[in-house]
Design a protein that fits this description.
607 residues, alpha/beta, eight-stranded parallel beta barrel, six-stranded antiparallel sheet, 18% helix, binds (2S,3S,4S,5R)-3,4,5-trihydroxy-6-oxo-oxane-2-carboxylic acid
């Protein structure tokens, strides 16, 4: 028989859970955030490492009603002990992963609390959002003791409205970030990259008018290359709200009105336009306004489509001379987050002769896609639907869809992004195919102007490889990964391998390569040496040039990256060494082989 005390305790727990649930209403997602007025909250935050999650759960693992690590009235100290003090706790820098900021957190996976105070001056008729660029993997936000929102997914931004929670003067924010790997997560338990925890990207307060532009899509029409079409959406707009869009340099503008859903269709007829392309990465200032809300974006306009086995950029066939990149910071390692990181990584790709990058295996910092827009580098963008997710679990599908949606919303204004990748090396099962075909449909539904791809596994023994994964049906462009000369056979075997591709679609060889420790030298058959890696690349190029429908290559990969599964002492030391560049910037021999092939067009032809 439950006692009254027990019933009361249950009631309190339930009430607390309901309060938690209330706070969980989906965070919104502001677009063009880097052009909005924002107060940066980057810098030093106090932290508490909380491996048992004592700040959230009581001794019977019930959610604490009022005991989260947050501001409590010091008077409370008289009735119960308060066993934490943020002001006396150490600090960590935001943005930044925690693993590379302090030795004791090198392998840490679990919950960690961040806290800081900030000043705020209210502005009437405005709404304020707490913007988090990325929190790996789950996050909970409190402002002035009020639980505001939760978010899951470590590589996409989210914004939570804090207008009512803020007060004039000093405020406090507490964020719990938990990078515990979970089986029903996206990604799941096993990956070949470091599970960097923390607030790995910018954090800020963003102020917008009461009704603000919360989404838009403006793209060049594939039909005539002379019309920009799309829509603008205004949050909570009444039907008939007026929208103005202009591109002063092109001397075009238009007025439109929102429909009952807050959306206004936009059409701009152009007299002439410099199309965005790798050789001419022209960006135009685009102004969008409604009432007091004005946004300016820097946008390029181009088209991308598939014609048979060709990829057409602005109607012309293109070969994608690419390279894979992890969001690993050059020189210091850890999660990349800065303008300088983006410029270095993409600068190296350019130096290699690339016009294309595969940003593996999750959405990178927005600075990467902005820099790609400026530098004229085409982008394959990916969600972490990596390896063996729980493909038969609808909750996991919902999580993958959410991450894809957040990625698309953030980067739909970037001309550089041409491909949405829905997966990497997933097992061929009916549940997987259904899951990823659904994701591919979602990608097209939200953005029909780009192409959908995935990196597939390859079949075949001996010198014959077969690409017939049924997921290929759902894709516009087929990606395939292979490691001939590294995980199988010898580098020379590649040159004698033939390919049988079941789809009459463009193919991108989305991974190939092998490990080399920079500075380690030997013969062409001595593993881990630069010579061995170079030998792989030489032979791969011979093989690749014999695949008629090959339209792009993104070898694995630009720079070495940390991975806890890479254990060989003296060689790997927790790094995957398949980079063509070491983290200290040293270029390995294979870099120059690929550079030559890209610069003199001896790898790949557009048609
Ligand atoms: C792959 C994966 C990539 C790994 C790479 C490797 O096929 O897609 O994430 O890091 O192989 O080095 O084994």
């Amino acid at each position: 028989m439950p006692t009254i005390k027990h019933a009361l305790a249950t009631f309190l727990v339930l009430t607390a859970s309901v309060a938690m649930l209330k706070a969980q209403s989906a965070p919104t997602l502001l677009v063009d955030i880097d052009h909005r007025a924002a107060t940066s909250l980057d810098g030093e935050w106090h932290i508490i490492v909380d491996p048992y999650f004592g700040g959230l759960y009581s001794f019977h693992r019930e959610i604490k009603k009022d005991g989260y690590f947050q501001d409590v009235d010091p008077a409370d100290n008289k009735t119960r002990p308060i066993e934490y003090d943020f002001s006396k706790s150490p600090t960590l820098k935001i943005p930044g992963d925690w693993n590379t900021q302090t030795d004791s957190l090198y392998y840490y996976e679990g919950p960690l609390w961040y806290e800081r105070k900030f000043d705020y001056t209210p502005k009437p008729q405005n709404r304020v959002f707490f913007h988090i660029g990325a929190a790996n993997y789950r996050a909970k936000l409190w402002v002035n003791g009020q639980h505001i929102c939760d978010h899951e997914g470590g590589f996409t931004p989210f914004d939570c409205e804090v207008t009512a929670a803020l007060k004039p003067g000093q405020n406090s924010a507490v964020i719990n970030v938990d990078n515990t790997r979970i089986e029903d997560g996206v990604p799941t338990l096993n990956t070949d990259w470091w599970n960097y925890g923390g607030l790995t990207r910018d954090v800020s307060l963003v102020t917008v008018p009461e009704h603000f532009i919360d989404d838009y899509d403006l793209h060049l029409s594939r039909a005539d290359h002379k019309t920009i079409e799309g829509y603008v959406h205004v949050d909570h707009a009444a039907a008939g709200a007026s929208i103005h869009v202009s591109i002063p340099e092109l001397k075009v503008d238009t007025n439109a009105t929102t429909d009952a859903e807050g959306r206004a269709a936009i059409t701009l007829h152009l007299q002439g336009i410099q199309l965005w392309a790798p050789e001419t990465p022209k960006l135009y200032k685009v102004n969008i306004s409604t009432g007091p809300d004005t946004l300016t974006d820097d946008m390029g306009f181009r088209t991308v489509e598939v014609q048979g086995t060709k990829i057409l950029l602005n109607g012309r066939p293109i070969y994608l001379r690419g390279i894979c990149i992890h969001a690993e910071a050059p020189y210091r390692t850890g999660r990349a987050y800065s303008e300088k990181d983006a410029d270095t990584l993409l600068g190296w790709a350019k130096e290699m002769g690339a016009n294309f990058v595969r940003l593996a295996h999750y959405p990178h910092d927005e600075r990467m896609t902005r820099a790609a827009d400026r530098m004229g580098i085409l982008v394959w963008s990916e969600v972490p639907t990596y390896w063996a997710l729980q493909f038969d679990n609808p909750t996991v599908l919902a999580k993958a869809e959410q991450q894809l949606h957040e990625e698309q919303r953030r980067d739909r204004d970037k001309a550089s992004v041409i491909l949405w990748s829905v997966a990497n090396e997933t097992p061929n099962t009916p549940a997987r195919t259904l899951f990823l075909s659904t994701l591919a449909d979602k990608a097209r539904e939200y953005d029909p102007t780009r192409l959908v791809t995935a990196a597939l596994l390859v079949r075949g023994q001996g010198n014959s490889k077969i690409v017939d994964d049924p997921l290929g049906k759902a894709l516009d462009v087929i990606g395939t990964n292979e490691y001939i000369g590294w995980y199988e056979k010898t580098p020379e075997d590649a040159a004698n391998t033939t390919w049988n591709i079941a789809y009459d679609k463009p193919l991108i060889m989305s991974e190939f390569g092998g490990d080399a420790k920079a500075g380690l030298h030997g013969g062409d058959h001595d593993r881990w040496t630069e010579e061995y890696q170079a030998n792989i690349f030489r032979n791969q190029i011979v093989m690749l040039n014999k695949i008629p429908q090959l339209r792009g290559t993104t070898p694995w990969l630009l720079m070495d990256f940390r991975s806890p599964v890479r254990k060989l002492p003296g060689i790997q030391d927790d790094f995957n060494r398949k980079g063509l560049i070491a983290p200290d910037g040293t270029k390995k021999k294979a870099f120059f082989i690929l550079q030559k092939a890209y610069q003199d067009n001896s790898l790949g032809k557009p048609e």
